[in-house]
Each structure stands twice: as C-alpha cells, then as structure tokens.
Amino acid sequence: MERSQEHPKKLLFVCSQNRMRSLTAECIFSGIPGIQVRSAGTQPDARIVITEGHIGWADVIFLMEKSHLNRLRHKFPEALEGKRTVTLRIPDQYRYMEPELIEELHTKVSRYIDIPELKREV
Predict the structure, then answer these.
(1) Domain edges within the chain
(2) What residues contact residue 15 under an 8 Å CB cut-off, 6+ apart?
(3) In 20-32, which positions are buried (b, 16+ CB within 10 angstroms) versus exposed (e)?
C-alpha cells in the first residue's frame, strides 16, 4: 500500500462564539479525505476558545470576519507569523447547519481548498 507523501491539510475555522458558523464549517468539512478540521471562537465565552495551539496546528485559518483576524493578530502575533489566513466575510446571521450557511461556506472555502461537491438533498 502506497502512502501519500502529502500530509492532510489542517483547516481551522474561527468565528466569535464557535456555536454557529465555525462549528457548521467543522461539521461539513470533517470526514473529507486528506483534510483535518477544527473550529474555535475568539470570545472568552466561546464553546471552544482559540489558543496558540490551535493556530500552531493549522495549515490554513479561515476567519468568518475581519474582526476575528484583527483579534488574533492582537492576541497571538507571533503564532500567526507565516500562517495562511483567509477572511471569508460571512456575517453572523445564520443558525447552526442552516442550508444557506452551508452553501456559502462551501462556495467560499472551495476557492482555496479542493473539496468535493456538496451532496444535495433530493
């Protein structure tokens, strides 16, 4: 059996609370071969609060809003050095696993990462 020389892409999704947007992203992109996914939030009361360890783990950090990137730059400037960050510009107006959020995440993330097509409900 041949092992791939390329390690899985490690994607970190960040929003404020880690309850709606980034958690949805973690859910829909988990299980794709060759990709590992985690999510975290920037607020102190987030479901999972982002740490320097999350940043160190990630190959690509997807942020839902520019304010999330600004917060990370302020709190973890050294950890972010050399890290690839992408601001998706997805506003905090969705519920967890809302179909429109899933569609927007898939469309925007697929510009940066090769991911399979969304399975559509019939």
Answers:
(1) 9-90
(2) 21, 22, 23, 39, 41, 42, 63, 64, 65, 68, 92
(3) bbbbbbbbbbeeb
Which DSSP letter does residue 121 get? P
Task: Find the helix or strand (DSSP H, E) in which 10 lies.
Answer: strand 9-15
Predicted confidence (pLDDT) per residue in 71-112, tens digit = 999 999 999 999 999 999 999 999 999 999 999 999 999 999
Q: Are strands 35-41 and 60-63 parallel, antiparallel or unpaired?
A: unpaired
Identify the architecture of domain 9-90 in CATH. 3-Layer(aba) Sandwich (3.40)
> Which residue reads 């960050």 in tokens?
85
